[in-house]
Write a structure and sequence with these properties.
By secondary structure, this protein is an all-alpha fold. The protein is built from five helices and no strands. The chain has one domain.
C-alpha cells in the first residue's frame, strides 16, 4: 500500500527539450493572437455602437424623415454595444495578464530560456497590452460621451 502522507509533486514534470521550449513559445504566441482577436472584437463593438448613436441622431435631425417611434432605442443600443466592447477588453486584459503570469511562473522559466533575474515587465514583453488599455480608455470615454450626450 502506498504512503499517502507524501507531499504532492509539482503539477507538471518540466523536461527541457527543444520540443518543450518551442511548445512554450507557440503557447505564448497563441495567447498574443487571442488577445488580438479580443481587441478586434472590442474595437468593432465600440465603433459600431458609437456609429449607431451618431447615425440615428443625425437621421432624426434631417428634414422629411418621420420621427422614430422609440427615439431612445438607438441610443440605448449604442450604449449597450459600447459597454459590451469595453467589457470584452476588460475580460481579455485580465485573462491575458493571468496567462502570461502563469507562463512566466518559476516552473516554466527554464522552458522560456530566461534566467531568474531577467524577467521583464509584461508591458516590455508585449506592447499589445498597452494597445488594449488605450482602446479600453477610448471605449470608456465613448461610453460616457454617449451616456451624457456630449456627441
Amino acid at each position: 500500500m502506498a504512503d499517502t502522507s507524501e507531499q504532492p509533486t509539482a503539477r507538471f514534470d518540466v523536461h527541457v527539450t527543444s520540443d518543450s521550449h518551442f511548445g512554450w513559445i507557440r503557447t505564448r504566441l497563441a495567447v498574443e493572437r487571442t488577445l488580438m482577436a479580443y481587441l478586434r472584437t472590442g474595437v468593432a463593438l465600440i465603433g459600431f455602437g458609437f456609429t449607431i448613436v451618431q447615425f440615428f441622431q443625425r437621421l432624426g435631425g434631417m428634414e422629411g424623415v418621420a420621427p422614430a417611434s422609440r427615439p431612445h432605442a438607438a441610443h440605448d443600443l449604442g450604449l449597450a454595444l459600447i459597454g459590451a466592447g469595453v467589457l470584452s477588453l476588460l475580460i481579455s486584459a485580465w485573462q491575458y495578464w493571468r496567462l502570461v503570469r502563469y507562463l512566466w511562473s518559476p516552473q516554466f522559466k527554464v522552458l522560456a530560456g530566461i534566467k531568474a533575474t531577467s524577467m521583464k515587465p509584461v508591458f516590455e514583453q508585449s506592447p499589445l497590452l498597452l494597445v488594449v488599455i488605450t482602446v479600453l480608455l477610448i471605449g470608456v470615454y465613448a461610453f460616457f460621451a454617449v451616456l451624457l450626450r456630449m456627441v
